[in-house]
Amino acid sequence: MPTTTAIRPAALTIHGGTYRYADGTLALSNVDLTVQKGEHLAILGPSGGGKTTLLGLISGRLRVSSGSLATQGNIATIHQDLRLVQQSTVLTNVLHGALPRQRRLRFLPGDIAHAKALLERVGLAEKIHTKVSRLSGGQKQRVAVARALMSDPEILLADEPVASLDSRTAHEVMGLLDRLRLSKGLTLVTVLHDPELAQKFADRTLHLTQSQSIQSSPVPISPPAEVPPPPPPPSSFKLRASSLLILALLAAAYLSSVSSLQLSPRQTQNLLPNLADFARRLIPTPAQILSAPWSQILSSLLETLRMSLLGTTVAIVLSLPLSALAARNIAPPVLRFPARFLLNVLRAVPSIVWALLMVAALGLGPVAGIIALAAYSLGYLTKFFYEAFESADANTLSALSELHATPLQKLRYAILPPATPTLAASSIFMFEYNVRAAGILGLVGAGGIGYELKLHLDYGNLHTVGLILALLVALTLALDAASSKLRTRLTRP
Questions:
Q1: Torsion angle of alpha carbons 104, 108, 114, 120, nearest 10°?
Q2: Taking the mean position of all CA atoms in its chain, how far away is CA 106?
Q3: pLDDT band for position 162 (50/70/90)?
Q4: Please, are residues 64 and 135 in contact by the beta-carbon 8 Å criterion?
Q5: Is 247 exposed, middle or buried (0-12, 13-18, 19+ CB in 10 A)?
Q6: What are the φ/ψ torsions at residue 78 (nearest 5 degrees)?
Q7: What is the pLDDT of residue 132?
Q8: Which range has the worst mean pLDDT, 98-107, 111-120, 202-211?
Q9: What is the mean pLDDT of residues 221-241?
Q10: Over 80: is that where the pLDDT of 466 sits?
Q11: What percent of the chain has pLDDT over 70?
Q12: Phi, psi values for residue 392, rounded to 5°
């Protein structure tokens, strides 16, 4: 592309720009650069030559260690790794570019219309409701371009925008960037490895050399001291002696446990026959099945499901804000440590103990069981949730930080989308667990099928006990099959 000779106002100026890392490494040294408004500057150079560091200084993500840097107008960056939220739609990712203009958790109709217009311009109008994870590399690159343009920049920075693309797609993306630059009057600064692309599309090139990226002087290395020989390994006799000691201690522990049972010879002799007779009495005959108190059993089973559903729902609602307070990438330590301490306390108390405490506090009935299930579930769900929050891509969070997103916006748009499948799967698992747990809370008077179970055990109606156990097994198997299908659907990319 012919170089423009007309003198235009400067979009950015660097005089003596120098940048040192925290460890003292000199990444850029004494850079002088002026880029005119509307110009396309391509930065070339070897890997490690400071190209990405220079873009970081221009964007404001980094600060010059010495020298001066001045820019005119808003700046947007297209990162080499794109930093898109893969689990969100194309439209939502582009709308992230509007975050600097508003502090809401919902986008305005005008922003949505603008985003759709940009997607049409970059050739993705038919993909607006497609998840980014399902796009090709070139399509993802176009989404990143549209997101950058959504913030209405005067200066657009593109760090290796075609590094992972084939030659044809690379030319398409570079052509798109250049057309957008010309139509919008943007100042475009790109980092490229391909000199041919730079020559074809850029007005001017800047070659960063190793002399502009000088490593700190190496520390003189003193002659290596004589290394003493490693100590000899323990003899095989010592190893055998320690193993025998461990085995002896384990044997003593088992013998002590068995002797503490104080089983008489008669009990030992009748152990298996008694168990077999008990199991036989658990199996109901057809007549006993027909005469069973089905109304009470089914009513208690339905109460068990209701307790599980309500207890799990309460725990989910409370876990979301608690997880935000406990996550390292969201909350400061002053909030995070107390939140995690509370969760450890909740997990330390079994659900049956919570039920005992709630019955003592509130009396008999399902309300005590619901609160007990919610308290126990809260400890575990919050742990699952905040671990999912902490697994969010740090680079994506960094991109939203550059867009001046608030903590709530980062939670809503960069943390929740990738965490949602884990949140849903954890919630389903907790509901399954609570159905099992609610089945025994009735043993202590906290409602559910456990009350019927204990009642018929007390009266010796073992055939009804067997019927209740069979229903619980069938319910568990049905829930497991349904939840497995649901989890598979939720975790599908």
A1: 100
A2: 22
A3: confident
A4: no
A5: exposed
A6: -105, 110
A7: 94
A8: 98-107
A9: 55
A10: yes
A11: 90
A12: -60, 145
Q: The dihedral of CA 295, 298, 300, 306: what is its sign? A: negative
In order of their start, the domains of the chain are 10-212 (3.40.50.300), 286-490 (1.10.3720.10)
Residue 406 has pLDDT above 90, yes or no: no
Determine how β-strand 204-207 pairs with β-strand 187-191: unpaired
What is the three-state SS of the chain? Answer: CCCCCCCCCEEEEEEEEEEECCCCCEEEEEEEEEEECCCEEEEECCCCCCHHHHHHHHHCCCCCCEEEEEECCCEEEECCCCCCCCCCEHHHHHHHHHHHHCCCCCCCHHHHHHHHHHHHHCCCHHHCCCEHHHCCHHHHHHHHHHHHHHCCCCEEEEECCCCCCCHHHHHHHHHHHHHHHHHHCCEEEEECCCHHHHHHHCCEEEECCHHHCCCCCCCCCCCCCCCCCCCCCCCHHHHHHHHHHHHHHHHHHHHHHHHHCCCCHHHHHHHHHHHHHHHHHHCCCHHHHHCCCHHHHHHHHHHHHHHHHHHHHHHHHHHHHHHHHHCCCCCCHHHHHHHHHHHHHHHHCCHHHHHHHHHHHHCCCHHHHHHHHHHHHHHHHHHHHHHHHHCCCHHHHHHHHHCCCCHHHHHHHHHHHHHHHHHHHHHHHHHHHHHHHHHHHHHHCCCCHHHHHHHHHHCCCHHHHHHHHHHHHHHHHHHHHHHHHHHHHHCCC
pLDDT of 454 > 50? The answer is: yes
Query: What is the pTM assigned to this prediction?
Result: 0.75
Average model confidence (pLDDT) for the chain?
A: 86
pLDDT recorded at residue 2: 47
